[in-house]
UniProtKB/TrEMBL annotation:
InterPro entries: RAYT_transposase (IPR052715), Transposase_17 (IPR002686), Transposase_17_sf (IPR036515). Signal peptide: none annotated. This is Transposase IS200-like domain-containing protein. One of its GO terms (biological process) is DNA transposition. The lineage of its organism: unclassified sequences, metagenomes, ecological metagenomes. Gene3D superfamilies: Transposase IS200-like. Pfam families: Y1_Tnp (PF01797).
């Protein structure tokens, strides 16, 4: 069982880099974070231009949908498709499973990661620990593995998070995480993808 942590390490609702976040110990969270070069700046700018004409109430949802679609194209250095990097990231996810969070589902894509957890600790610190653990290792082995990580930074700052509303949302989110490689054309079934909690191997 995860050890109890007082809620003073959780922020509740807050904004960071213009994105809303909800950080609490009693909610399950789906977290997405991506490589620094996974989305070109001109793409991000065009998404924001296009969203100006959308109703404000739907902008965040549309932003995430369009960003996810671009991420699935697998742009950038794709360092996470290297088996050694993916293995180190998995080690990072598992290090504090059962301590700072319960790891419920995950999928490592070539240029981004989806994770579902039940946090028992500050969400921002959890994500930072994953990034730091993997980033230091990847930069140290950049040349040997030919990763071509740009500008000395593996990860894009920040992350997206969505809290799970109910049981239906839970199963839909797990399905989305596990089927992301299928949707991106990387495999025919979720169970074939090695770097996922759905892997059947």
């Amino acid at each position: 069982m995860p050890h109890a942590v007082s809620d003073d390490v959780h922020k509740g609702w807050y904004h960071s880099r213009r994105l809303p976040h909800f950080d609490a110990s009693y909610v399950q969270q789906v977290i997405t974070f991506r490589l620094a070069d996974s989305l070109p700046q001109h793409v991000l700018r065009q998404i924001e231009v296009d969203l100006k004409s959308a109703p404000e109430s739907t902008r965040e949802h549309q932003r995430r949908q369009r960003t996810d679609a671009w991420l699935d194209l697998g742009l950038g250095c794709r360092a996470l498709e290297n088996a050694e990097v993916a293995e180190v990231l998995l080690e990072g996810l598992l290090r504090n499973d059962g301590k700072r969070y319960q790891l419920l589902a995950w999928c490592v894509m070539p240029n981004h990661v989806h994770v579902m957890i039940q946090p028992q600790y500050s969400l921002a610190r959890i994500v930072q620990s994953w990034k730091s653990y993997t980033g230091r290792w990847a930069l140290a082995h950049n040349a040997r593995l030919g990763l071509e990580i740009p500008a000395g930074s593996l990860w894009m700052r920040g992350y997206w998070d969505r809290f799970i509303r109910d049981e239906e949302h839970f199963f839909a989110a797990v399905d989305y995480i596990h089927n992301n490689p299928v949707k991106a054309g990387l495999c025919e079934s979720a169970g074939q993808w090695r770097w996922s909690s759905a892997y059947e191997g």
